[in-house]
Amino acid sequence: MAPRNPFTPSFGVSPPLLVGRAGLIEEFGEGLDDGPGAPGRATLFTGPRGMGKTVMLNATEHEARRRGWLVISESATKGLLDRMVTEHLPGLLRQVDPRTTGRRATAASVGGLGSVGWEHTDAHPVASGLRNQINRLTDLLTANETGLLITVDELHRGRLDDLTEICSVIQHSFREERQVAFAGAGLPAAVRDLLNEDPLTFLIRADRHVLGAVSLRDVADALRLPIETSGRTITNGALARAASSTAGYPFLIQLVGYHLWRQHPSAVSISRSDADAGMAAAARRIGSLVYEPALKDTSAVDRSFLVAMALDDGPSRMADIAERLGTDGNYAGQYRIRLLQHELIHSPWRGFVDFSLPYLREYLRDHAASLVSAALPLTPTPAGVEAP
Ligand SMILES: Nc1ncnc2c1ncn2[C@@H]1O[C@H](COP(=O)(O)OP(=O)(O)OP(=O)(O)O)[C@@H](O)[C@H]1O
Ligand SMILES: [Mg+2]
Fold first, then answer.
1. Which pick of 80, 317, 357, 363 has the fewest CB atoms within 10 Å?
2. What is the CATH class of 22-94+123-210?
3. How far, in Å, from the CA of 188 to the mean position of ligand 2?
């Protein structure tokens, strides 16, 4: 039977080998070891889709568990606060508190066939608020010299009320030198929106890491080692081509790895032609997996700007973009800022912009017609910027 494909081209699933993030993971671990007040105890990861934010939250959770800490792993979706106080915290309290459940024999079962039934009476009623529950839990954990890590993925302004409450309680815990840590992750624009909210000063002070591409040497390891561990090999030529085709973009490492593996899964060695076929398959799929959802978050004019950029083979001159859009530099500049905030583009040098993600240019070229149709005609609004 052919060995199993080790690569994980799915969002949120930790890769067979996590590369290029050792320093960040170590820094977070040090924050746990250094005690209350250490900067890593409030950490935020941002970066474009597929850059490995969720995987970094998984890594922080692993660091915490390795140290005996308890973990609440959540996403900023509807009902976040409610799940914290009615499910996670009561569950953890039951787990660590020896006095948590009083057991008493139930009359009905005593009268049965000699077996005694037990009814659990909860010492941690759901009603006790977030702060009480966290205080009680961390009091108990301090005795074991461990603590509580709370991770929240997909940070978003839509859950502002819940996040405000959670952050304020964590901030109190920090002040009281409790063993609590927080790690959050979200898309750059969503996190930036949140950080503009007054009640969330806690997050502003968090250690913020913008995740970017990893080095090609790291990519080569991330491809080769899982292949070898799974019992196959890859030629040097195939590895070099496959690695550079990812441009260091983590999701593409997994997608390219997955497709080059599956060309001839029973062959021991992965050849250069397997690599070429795998790269082509990955390039075809990345559009619907990454760019389609990413472009949904942009406005029609944002997309026209991107399509105008895709006419160039390399970095685009801002003056050319404005001309192609038939508008002035000032108006084009507003969209430039928005797209920089989305981290879909970056500015390699003054007056120029380029794409931040591999194959985005090719995707835009292939889909230009459907992407810009909604944006025309393109004329500046009086306010200068269309609502997002
Ligand atoms: N450092 C890394 N080395 C190797 N593979 C990685 C690395 N980071 C992430 N990956 C892989 O990339 C893919 C995307 O990672 P992840 O889901 O964490 O991205 P994300 O930034 O959370 O994306 P989204 O914004 O859509 O939530 C996963 O398949 C993951 O295994
Ligand atoms: Mg994610």
1. 317
2. alpha beta
3. 12
